[in-house]
Amino acid sequence: MSGGSAMAETADEDSNGTIDNEELRNCLNKLQVSEFESARLNYVFDELIDAFLFFDKDGNGKMKRKDVTQRMNEATHQERTPSHITSQLFKEMDLNKNGHVNLKEFLLSIIRWAGVETDDDEARNETSP
């Protein structure tokens, strides 16, 4: 299990597949994140939740490939994201390959795309020649 995945599972206290605001705050307290850092992280978390909700068109807590494709292209009719790009993005987010992306999968994908190194990544880099 990767460090990011392990951290997400630890933060998901009720094991419902999502990390709500209270669980995030508890996690930040355990990590001893300062109040200033916590406020910044809460802002980023809120923005990520808003992004997830934007793609979760029917509000059931699961994004569908069709909804992701539609939402990515509805802002402008002049520039459309090619379907192979949106399909690839969705495929990368659908970690359990069930055809839907929940909040946990979405957040783990964002972390991976942002290039945040996990403990596993750091250990590999230390042992590499």
TrEMBL record:
<dbReference type="InterPro" id="IPR011992">
    <property type="entry name" value="EF-hand-dom_pair"/>
</dbReference>
<keyword id="KW-0106">Calcium</keyword>
<dbReference type="InterPro" id="IPR018247">
    <property type="entry name" value="EF_Hand_1_Ca_BS"/>
</dbReference>
<feature type="domain" description="EF-hand">
    <location>
        <begin position="12"/>
        <end position="34"/>
    </location>
</feature>
<protein>
    <recommendedName>
        <fullName>EF-hand domain-containing protein</fullName>
    </recommendedName>
</protein>
<dbReference type="GO" id="GO:0005509">
    <property type="term" value="F:calcium ion binding"/>
</dbReference>
<feature type="region of interest" description="Disordered">
    <location>
        <begin position="1"/>
        <end position="20"/>
    </location>
</feature>
<dbReference type="Pfam" id="PF13202">
    <property type="entry name" value="EF-hand_5"/>
</dbReference>
<dbReference type="InterPro" id="IPR052591">
    <property type="entry name" value="CML21-like"/>
</dbReference>
<feature type="domain" description="EF-hand">
    <location>
        <begin position="43"/>
        <end position="78"/>
    </location>
</feature>
<feature type="domain" description="EF-hand">
    <location>
        <begin position="81"/>
        <end position="116"/>
    </location>
</feature>
<dbReference type="InterPro" id="IPR002048">
    <property type="entry name" value="EF_hand_dom"/>
</dbReference>
<dbReference type="Pfam" id="PF13499">
    <property type="entry name" value="EF-hand_7"/>
</dbReference>
